[in-house]
Amino acid sequence: MPCTEAYIVEKIVIHESEALDVKCQGTLRRQEIKIYYSFFGKVELF
């Protein structure tokens, strides 16, 4: 049986984005994404 993303990834949590530079009227933004793997645990991407 092939191993696909549906079996590997338990859940993905995407947080609301936030402006990093108020002077640029929010053109530079950051968004936190957390990926929970079934057998690896949580991995955070920056």
Helix-strand category: mainly beta
Rg calc: 15 Å
Q: Beta-strand level of the residues, as a percent range?
A: 35-45%
Uncertain stretches: none
Shape: rod-shaped
Question: How many beta-strand elements?
Answer: 5
Could you state the order of secondary-structure elements as H and E?
Answer: HEEEEE
Biggest sheet record? 3 strands, antiparallel
Q: Calculate the terminal CA-CA distance, rounded to whole Å.
A: 32 Å
Which bin fits the share of residues in helices? under 10%
Number of helices: 1
Mean pLDDT: 75
Q: How many domains, as an integer?
A: 1
Spatial sequence of strands, sheet with the most strands? 1-4-5
Tell me briefly what this model is.
The chain is mainly β and 46 residues long. The chain is 9% helix and 43% strand.
Task: Describe this protein's structure.
The protein has one helix and five strands, in the order H-E-E-E-E-E. The chain is mostly beta strands and 46 residues long. It has one domain (5-45). It has a three-stranded antiparallel beta sheet. A two-stranded antiparallel sheet has the order 2-3. The mean pLDDT is 75.
Task: Describe the protein's topology.
Layout (H helix, E strand, L loop, with lengths): L4 H4 E6 L3 E2 L9 E2 L2 E5 L3 E5 L1
Antiparallel strand pairs: 1-4, 2-3, 4-5
